[in-house]
Amino acid sequence: MQEMDAYQLARLREATGTPPQAAVTASRRQVLNQFTTTAPLIQWAVVPSPLGPLYVAASARGVCRVGFGVSQADFLSRLDPLARTEQNTTALAPITAQLREYFAGQRSQFDLALDLGRSTPFQRGVLQTARRIPSGSVWTYGQVARVIGKPRASRAVGQALGRNPVPIVVPCHRVVASDGGLGGYSGGGGLESKKLLLQLEGAL
What pTM does this model have? Predict the structure, then answer.
């Protein structure tokens, strides 16, 4: 085999070795530019509430995440990892205004677009049904299951509600056990928060 000359050897090392720092920097800049111009934007804000700081996030399609009883870092970690995030109180003012009205007893239903794109079709069906439950009343998991045409899916309904990404806006707290108990609640604060929300609405 013919031996490589010094020039060929240098080119081979350049191709297979660590790239120059300038090339690494340029590549990172290109990736960052691509991300900031093409990645979807999720904006978020904080609302004071009886449950403590309530975090709300929205994409271009609607509200995609509501969280309370969690840290800001934990809330942000649950957003779409492929999206850019930006705290923007002004942009979310129409959403936070409705939440403030709710906690002030001035609103019983929310008129907000939702982004449930990360939920399964079954979960979306359950959440959209729960959204129809009037304030001041409760349904059982079995009732929700029957409305969605899955009368034996009470347990699956409970699991779907437990994964509700937008509690309060989608009032999963209005769904209780058939024996009269509160059932479960995955929102921050657990059953105490569920009880507080039902008391706020006059259901307890």
Answer: 0.80
